[in-house]
Specification:
It holds the Pfam family EamA. With about 300 residues, the protein is mainly α. Helices cover about 70% and strands about 0% of the residues. It has one domain.
Length: about 300
């Protein structure tokens, strides 16, 4: 990690927090687009619209063409596209809070995998932060929607998505050891578009919306969730241990549940409000939960963790 990154340890968590807020808008954008387009087609156009945006940003900022894609990026992008495919299906069967909570359990699991694979050894306080955040996420998921929308089939799809997102975060993080954030997010999105296109074909959905206005939702998702949210998260992961990052991004269900309360009538109970507060407490506790790499740089087993957005 660079001296600049070491001198600003708050930057990585801040980027992750902002990215999580952007990603928290994803289920809202999806719900708003389902009237004119299927969930898998929305995902496809989300990636497709984001590709030229990311290319222009990369060439404009880095003043070069993208570096060569790697097998790890292809694997990570495939897992993310499958994660979104399962999650989009889940959101059509269960509440926003339920689906987002279950999927984000995969983010928490990344911390345990990073401990074993990337040698990011957590401190005891990290386990407390995990317990607090997971308890909060569980409480936040209680209550269902006002229209009785919760469905076990949607919850099971979300479990599959959680497994996919855990692998996505891990392999994206490993990709950042050899490539910068801009290259990783660009090639991830290209891979995701290809996989999403195959998912649309397999699902039998139409690629095109009923009206041109149907492109508004995926365009919104491309700009806010893909370029903004995923980009910020990948950049933040390059400066933040995976274990801590997995907890920080739990801001997503808090933000998504609050918005869905206002937009879709999925009202929050006192229990859910308390759960949201616990998640925020867990995020705060997690900041001291992993030994910083600059403190353990002399140990050859401590690989520098640089990740994705």
């Amino acid at each position: 990690m660079s001296d600049t990154a070491n001198s600003r340890p708050w930057l990585g968590p801040l980027l992750l927090l902002l990215g999580g807020l952007c990603i928290g808008l994803a289920p809202i954008g999806l719900r708003m687009g389902l009237d004119t387009m299927g969930p898998q087609a929305i995902a496809f156009w989300r990636y497709t619209f984001a590709i030229p945006m990311l290319f222009v940003l990369l060439v404009g900022i880095e003043r070069r063409m993208p570096k060569k894609i790697t097998p790890l990026i292809i694997l990570a992008g495939t897992l993310f596209a499958l994660d979104i495919a399962l999650w989009h299906w889940a959101l059509t069967m269960t509440t926003v809070a339920n689906a987002t909570f279950i999927v984000n359990m995969g983010n928490v699991c990344v911390g345990f995998v990073a401990w074993l694979v990337l040698k990011e050894r957590p401190k005891p306080i990290w386990f407390v932060a995990v317990a607090v955040a997971v308890a909060g996420a569980a409480a936040l998921s209680q209550g269902g929607g006002a229209n009785g929308q919760a469905d076990i089939r949607g919850d099971l799809l979300a479990v599959g998505a959680a497994i996919m997102v855990a692998g996505y975060m891990l392999f994206s993080k490993m990709s950042r050891n050899t490539l910068g954030a801009m290259d990783v997010i660009f090639w991830l999105t290209v891979t995701e578009a290809v996989v999403a296109g195959l998912v649309v074909l397999a699902s039998g959905e139409s690629f095109l919306p009923e009206t041109p206005q149907g492109f508004a939702a995926p365009l919104f998702l491309a700009l806010v969730a893909q370029v903004g949210g995923q980009g910020l998260i990948i950049a933040g992961l390059g400066r933040t241990p995976a274990a801590v990052a997995g907890i920080i991004v739990l801001i997503q269900p808090v933000f998504a549940a609050g918005l869905s309360w206002q937009l879709f009538g999925e009202s929050l109970t006192i229990l859910q409000g308390g759960g949201a507060a616990l998640i925020l407490l867990g995020i705060w506790l997690s900041q001291g939960g992993v030994k910083r790499r600059r403190q353990t740089a002399s140990k050859p087993s401590q690989a520098e963790v640089t990740n994705r957005a």
